[in-house]
Amino acid sequence: MYMKEGIVTKVTIKDIAKHVGVSAMTVSNVINKRSSRVSAETVSKIEKAIVELGYIPDYSARSLVSKKSKMIGVIIPQTETHKQFLLENPFYSEIVSGIESKLREKNYYMMLTGVDKDSSYLDVLINWNLDAAIILGIYQEGFYEQLKKINIPVLLIDSYIHDGYFYNLGIDDLYGGYIATQHLIEKGHREIAIITGHLKKDGVAEKRFLGYRKALDEADIPFNENYVYADSVSYECGITAGQKIVTECKAVTAVFATADLIAAGAIASFHAANIKVPDDISIIGFDNLSISRMTYPLLTTVDQKIFDKGMKAANILMDTLKNGNSKIEKDVILDIEIIERNSVKHIECKI
């Protein structure tokens, strides 16, 4: 930007060319890294003028020429009734950080938005002129058919929509719920409660709940519906459920929280009730967020390497845009493992 007759004016390639004394084509070639036929001295002068004059590239104009915007949309739907700020859940903060870091490395830009429950994604996808899009945690509802009308690659993270049009990246959530519950059983626990988000068909929370049920069944532990606390993936949900467990389910010796954020809330409620973790009650979380290393005691949890998951999502789309759809695997399932810390105690099994 510079002042022209008292008005702030955007610097153009022609302004730089005039300042340096070269053609606009030469300046354009330098800006777009096509400077093999331009002398090092001229390149240096142009680069210096770009800084001095404050030239800002017009990416919208570039996209009209190349038909590529270099923009990747990241859409986080509000899938639960519990309203949260966009990045209130640290899971989203961490995965978005992974996506953005990889996109920036590849000279792409990220557009991030939340979408309220039952709102349309199409306006966002159309108006942003995106090269590709990442959508987190959507369900198989009517709108997803409309997504196919947008002629760009779409990657779904943590979704159980199986459709050849979309790319999918996730983990085996049922297995994750299974190994978390199995870990508690192996430590001698049989009275195991679960605190989870809303149990919606083919959702992440439901899959983890089914894993919990599977581990109980295999260990011949009767399922007790009074041990199920399903609300939202939030710290507040953990607090409320923890309070109910303390007052209503005194036989419970262990809790599987399907998210670390829930587990942190439950631990806080146990502390407030003078219930010691893990001496009086054990708890295992899910995600291995940074908060799992901040609770007291440190939280045993299922690790799904969320930052790496975000980078993997960006890589899939970058490879798709570079190599075409046919060469990229459509469904990618990432490994998970238990990180054992200090929140689960071994007890003598009483049958």
Offer a concise description of the structure:
With 351 residues, this protein is of the alpha/beta class. The protein has three domains: 2-57, lambda repressor-like DNA-binding domains (434 Repressor (Amino-terminal Domain), Orthogonal Bundle); 71-171 and 306-334, Response regulator (Rossmann fold); 173-304, Response regulator (Rossmann fold). It is built from twelve helices and 14 strands.
How would you portray this structure in words?
This protein has 12 helices and 14 strands. The strands form 3 sheets. It has a 6-stranded parallel β-sheet, with helices on one face. The protein has a 6-stranded mixed β-sheet with strand order 9-8-10-11-12-14, sandwiched between helices. A two-stranded antiparallel sheet has the order 1-2. It has helices at 13-20, 24-31, 40-53, 59-66, 90-105, 122-127, 143-147, 173-186, 204-218, 235-248, 260-272, 306-323; strands spanning 2-4, 7-9, 71-77, 109-115, 132-136, 154-157, 167-171, 192-197, 228-231, 254-257, 282-287, 300-303, 331-334, 337-339. The protein has 3 domains: 2-57, 434 Repressor (Amino-terminal Domain); 71-171 and 306-334, Response regulator (Rossmann fold); 173-304, Rossmann fold (3-Layer(aba) Sandwich). It is elongated, with a radius of gyration of 26 Å. Residues 3-8 have low confidence and may be disordered. The protein is α/β, with parallel strands linked by helices and 351 residues long.
